[in-house]
Amino acid sequence: MQKDKIFNKCIDLFLKEQPDSSASQFIKLIIDSHPQYRNYHTIFDDLCYKIGLGFYGVESIKKNYYIPVFKYYPDNILEEEPREEFLINKNYPISFKKVYTYLAKEIVYRLMRIKNINQILNNQI
């Protein structure tokens, strides 16, 4: 299964299971601000890029197992120091499917904690 399909499935499931949650409302706000895209992975990838954040799975030394990573690029608007942040212990990698499920959830929750996210959505998109 491709990463975008895994990511999209996770977001779809979340929206169906918790349609009235603050996270679902936040996801809908982001979707509405990206009418040109039909794919959740593309929407969040585009938003993260504009913020200066990347997300991906890095294959571990154990084949077919991965570690979810956030990358903070130089000059990111979150004022984070440029770095790669491994989101789980490198000694306990997970499957490709679990990596993109994990990243979908983590991205939503991290973006929700950005105090000026509405301003970012209005100015950056």
The spatial strand order of the largest sheet comes to 1-2-3
* Overall pLDDT: 90
Name the helicity range. 40-55%
How many distinct domains? 1
Describe the structure.
It is a single chain. With 125 residues, this protein is of the alpha+beta class. It has one domain. It is 50% helix and 14% strand. It has a three-stranded antiparallel sheet. A hairpin with a 6-residue loop joins strand 1 and strand 2 (66-72). The mean pLDDT is 90.
What descriptors fit this protein?
125 residues; single chain; 50% helix; 3 strands; three-stranded antiparallel sheet; alpha+beta; 5 helices
Q: What are the SSEs and their pairings?
A:
Blueprint lengths: L2 H15 L4 H11 L7 H12 L1 E7 L6 E7 L10 E4 L9 H17 L4 H8 L1
Antiparallel strand pairs: 1-2, 2-3
Short summary:
With 125 residues, the chain is an alpha+beta fold. It has one domain.
